[in-house]
Design brief:
By secondary structure, this protein is mainly α. Helices cover 88% and strands 0% of the residues.
Length: 136
């Protein structure tokens, strides 16, 4: 069950990251084709920001659960900390260009590095979960 929840969080955060790294104009063009041309500015921060927040929190919450189950406590489970750091970095990367002018490149780098860390933590956690199931 936890694997499905992690997948949902990853899909959401990857969607947001894709939009922030260049997929946003594609969605904006599709919205304009449907008559929602004002959607682009709303999409950027008012939709993607909360979606990224929810996705990152969802992944970290699932890694916390995995940490309690596999290591006895989340604080002793390395994927939890890697996912938390990566998710925080990716979230800052999404929000930073809207808060500090001229930080688009730094935001992009944070999104990429954060997503790599979150993917690494999630796959590590899934691997640990499968190993535990095999030994049960």
């Amino acid at each position: 069950m936890t694997a499905k929840r992690q997948t949902v969080g990853l899909v959401g955060s990857l969607f947001v990251s894709t939009c922030c790294l260049g997929g946003g104009p594609i969605l904006a063009a599709a919205a304009a084709a449907l008559g929602f041309s004002a959607f682009h500015s709303v999409l950027n921060i008012y939709v993607l920001g909360p979606l990224m927040t929810i996705s990152v929190l969802w992944i970290v919450w699932n890694l916390r659960i995995q940490g309690r189950v596999l290591a006895g406590a989340a604080r002793r489970y390395a994927p939890f900390w890697i996912g938390l750091a990566g998710g925080s970095g990716a979230w800052v990367g999404v929000v930073l260009p809207y808060v500090v002018h001229g930080t688009h490149h730094a935001g992009t780098a944070l999104i990429i590095l954060g997503m790599i860390a979150m993917l690494t933590a999630s796959f590590w956690s899934l691997k640990d979960q499968r190993q535990r199931l095999r030994h049960s």
